[in-house]
Every structure is written in C-alpha cells, then in structure tokens.
Amino acid sequence: MTYSSILSSAGLAPKELSRGSLAVHSPIDGAEIATISETVSQDFPAIIARAQSAFRQWRSVPAPRRGELVRLLGEELRAAKDELGALVTLEVGKITSEGLGEVQEMIDICDFAVGLSRQLYGLTIASERPGHRMAETWHPIGPVGIISAFNFPVAVWSWNAALALVCGNPIIWKPSEKSPLTAMAAHRCLERAIARFGDAPDGLSQLVIGGPDIGAALVESRDVPVISATGSTRMGNIVGPKVLARWGRPILELGGNNAMIVAPSADLDMAVRAIVFSAVGTAGQRCTSLRRLIVHESIHDDLVAKLKAAYASLPVGDPRESDTLVGPLVDAEARARMLAQLEKARSEGGNVHGGEAVKMGVPQGGAYITPALVEMPAQTDTVRTETFAPILYVMRYANLEEAIEMQNDVPQGLSSCIFTMNLREAETFLSASGSDCGIANVNIGPSGAEIGGAFGGEKETGGGRESGSDAWKGYMRRQTSTINYSAELPLAQGVRFDI
Ligand code: NAD
Questions:
Q1: Side-chain half-sphere of 421: how many Cα atoms within 13 Å?
Q2: Side-chain-side CA neighbours of residue 252 (13 Å)
C-alpha cells in the first residue's frame, strides 16, 4: 500500500493533510507524509467552554447509557482495526502486529468500560450514630485533558477516553506532535460513534493539535480538573506541579527503567524469549521496555551467550515486512541519543554488543539500528537513566537481597519482574520488601500489560494509574453522605452541644 492509500483508508482526506504548519514524518524512511493545521492557544477559551457545556449535560446521562457510546466506539474500532493499525505503523514505525495490537488494546478497554458503566460502585458504611446511614457516591468530575506520547499514539488515549466518558466527563485530547495523524483517525472513530449514539452533547470530545505549548494551555486551565499526561519524566516535572498549583488532579504516566531479575532456578529458554521481546520489541520504545537485566552470577555467562545468539539473528528492517521484529526508531535524534548513551556506557566500563546503525536492506532515511546488549560492571548513572531505545544493560548479582536492592535503586518505578522457579524468591520479590514498582511480574517480562489491571508506576514514573481495576476512581469525585432517618440529632464522638 502507498502512504497516501494508508492515510485515505484511515479516513484522512488529502486536503487536510497539506494545509498546515505541523510537518509529520514517517519513521520508516523519514519522508514527510503530511503538514497539518495546529490548534492555536487563542482557541482555548472556546474549547474549554464547549467542554464545560458538554459536561453539564453528559454528567446527568445515566452511566449505562454513557457506556452505550463506548460500546459503539468499540464497534467502530473493530471495523477500522486494520486501517488504524497500518497508520500506527506508518506514523510511529511499529511492526504490523504491534500496530494491530495497539488497536486491539483500544477495543479491549472499550469492552472493559462498557461493563464498568454498570459498576461505578460506592460503599455503604456503618454509622456510629443510631438511625443514621453513611454512603459514598462517585460523581463525574468535569473535563479531562489527555496528553499522550508518540510511542502509544492511540492506546493511551483510549485508556483515558473510555473511562472518562463512562464516568461522565468530556475529554480534550492533545496527542504527541509526532503522531497527530493516528490521533485524527482514531478521533474520527469516536465522532462516528457519537453520530450513531444520537444525543451526545456538542464538545463531548475534542482534539487539539500541536506541541508542548498547546499542552501547556490545557494544563493551565482551571476548568479542566483532571490532566492525564503520559510522556517523559521531564514533561511530568513541568506538568504535575502546574496542575497541582491550580488545585487540579494530575494523573502522570512517565518514564520507566524496568528490570528483570534472573535467578539460578529460572527456565532460561523462557527467560530468553521474554527478555528479547521486552527489550527489543517496539525497538525498545515502550515505557515498560526491559532496560536492565540483573542475573545471578552462576548463570550469567550462559544467559549472556544465549542472548548474544538471539540478538545476532534479530531481523531489523521495514516494519511493514512480515518477518521484521525490530523496526526503526522514531527519528534520527532518538538514534543519536542511543549512540551517545552507548558511548557513556563504554566510558563507565561497559562492554557493548550491537548498537550499530543499519544502512543496508532497510528503507533509506529511517533510523534503523541493531539492539544493544551492554555488559556493565555496576549500575552506573547511565544505567539509571531511561534511554528510549533498545539498550539492555546486563549486571550480575550474588544474592536476592542485593538483586532487589539494585532493581529498586533507580529513580523510576514502573515495571519489574523475576524469573525463578523458587516460590520463596518469587513471593519475596512481590512482598513489601520486594520490588518497589507499580507492576511486578513473575516468569513474564515487564512489558505487554493487559487492560484489566491498573497501569502505572511509582517514584519518577509519576504515581498515576490508568486502565483497569479501580483506576476509574481517578476520573470521578467522591462524595461521602451521612443520612439521618431518626428523630434525634446525636453528634459523632459523643460530643454534646445542647441548646
Ligand atoms: P514527551 O514527554 O516528549 O511528550 C509527551 C507529550 O507531552 C507530548 O504530547 C508533548 O507534546 C507533551 N508535552 C511535552 N512537554 C510539555 C509541557 N511542558 N506541557 C504540556 N505538554 C507537554 O514524551 P515522548 O517522547 O512522546 O514519549 C516517550 C516518553 O514517554 C518516555 O519517557 C516513556 O517512558 C514515556 N511513556 C510513559 C508511559 C507510561 O504509561 N508510564 C507510556 C508511554 C510513554
């Protein structure tokens, strides 16, 4: 398929792809595939007013009816899966099955949210006072601003959008300036669902296009009570305090520096498969990508030999080809950052395997590179830094306590895992004195989460939770009510105040 046929199949008209100031490039070959119009900050008052007006109507629509809109969105996404998946591949360079997997994740969260629309449960609580009842109710909170990163150009939006909509909130989405086309196509799916739904308020969902300035306009608005921002820790450092300073609620999903501990009893063949997928899948550009391997000294050499063999045969190339497993990095700057980090690792005593630019047999103009395996003598500052590229640092440990300490000794706290057949080791890793991450797995890699669990991490990863479990509570306001059905007015804690 040509680039223009991928764009038109995803519902994007040539007219809207050639009329603006924001240039969009494909990582496949660096070609400019569109120039689109950007939102200007002067438009924001009207955008926010539309969202506020939509909120006044949408909050009173019964939640199961709101769920019907999300059910229709799921239908639209199912119908557009192939086209949207192909656009993800074109715009961010994911291999075909990962592009499709991203759309499947959107469908999954829609299914989840439809069920959720009948389960926005509150508690009833025993009152200490006779003839009284206490209850907790969850109410819609207001417009939700969604700022998303390039590497999951649509799935992260859907995690937020599906929950926010069933929770009774309008949404305003600012996608990454590197992936606005996938956002436009996904938003069209929601617009079609809204048209089929019939009576959704205008302004229920709005898309704003642009870079950090446009994100900042959203972040600074007092009338957008929740800002869900996904991206680098650098971005979260700016966005989080700004939202808090105006008494808003940030949901921050920031950088990770994810590790795997491989214990002596591990099934090494299974570990190798998990390591390779999670370290080089999406060309190492997942927030949950495996970046640190902490291996018991008794199996270190054996595992490294197996990994070198596996890395040597990895097909790097055009993400549209069915046998490619490692596509391009998002752009040349990302490749330059990867090469610079490898230099730093070398200067800290690292022994680097791979990490070479690939020029032959790949589309010219793309940032193709072989994934790097780096044997490190210790966990240095370079290892503690997230580099958004396929670099896997390998280090040794002697006992589990030391391994867990190394696993936790980084600023980020997103995902982690252990490979072991030893129940004591597995449970210690999952215990209060084990991994300090938001995600901790056993005998499975750190990446590729399902939507059923709450997703997010601690420390510099930001503390936010999205997607499954009770993450929906972040998109609602909690109200505690005490109802007195007696003829007396007793005070709590035995306080007397008789008049
Ligand atoms: P980025 O921080 O450069 O950009 C992310 C988004 O934030 C973009 O939409 C960008 O325009 C916006 N932005 C940047 N500065 C802003 C500001 N000052 N005010 C408002 N908006 C601003 O990140 P990226 O390069 O697109 O994505 C890669 C990063 O995202 C990695 O660090 C990765 O770990 C992280 N990430 C985290 C998760 C997660 O769930 N924890 C998921 C995906 C990506």
A1: 7
A2: 28
Catalytic amino acids?
Answer: 253, 287
Residue 25 — φ and ψ, nearest 5°?
-115, 150
Query: Is the confidence at residue 1, as pLDDT, over 90?
Result: no
Which value, in Å, is the radius of gyration of the alpha carbons in the chain? 24
Q: Which residues, in sequence order, are CB contacts of 330 under 8 Å at separation 6+?
A: 27, 92, 93, 150, 151, 178, 285, 367
How many Å lie between the centroid of ligand 1 and the Cα of residue 148? 6
Residue 468 has pLDDT above 90, yes or no: yes
Pairing of strands 205-207, 466-467: unpaired
pTM above 0.90, yes or no: yes
DSSP state of 204: S
Task: With beta carbons less than 8 A apart as the criterion, state whether 220 and 244 touch.
Answer: no
> If you write DSSP's letter for every residue of 39-56 in order, what string do you get?
--GGGHHHHHHHHHHHHH
Q: Give tens-digit pLDDT for 76-92.
A: 999 999 999 999 999 99
Nearest 10 degrees: Cα torsion 398, 404, 409, 415: 130
Positive or negative, the Cα torsion across 453, 455, 457, 462? Answer: negative
Identify the CA nearest to 438 among candidates 275, 255, 196: 255
CA of 235 to the centre of ligand 1 (A): 6
DSSP H or E stretch at residue 392: strand 391-397
pLDDT in tens, 353-368: 999 999 999 999 999 9
Q: Is 379 helix (H, G, I), strand (E, B) or coil?
A: coil
> Which DSSP letter does residue 409 get?
-
Pocket of ligand 1 (CB under 6 A): 147-152, 156, 174, 176-177, 211-212, 215-216, 219, 230-232, 235, 238-239, 253-256, 287, 386, 388, 414, 461
Question: To which residue do tokens 């580099």 refer?
Answer: 387
Tokens of 437: 């991450």
Retrieve residue 360's tokens. Answer: 């032959």
Whole-number Å distance between alpha carbons of 382 and 370: 19
Residue 277 to residue 372: CA distance in whole angstroms: 13
SS3 14: helix
- What is the average pLDDT across 410-423? 98
Task: Count other C-beta atoms under 10 Å from residue 201's C-beta.
Answer: 16
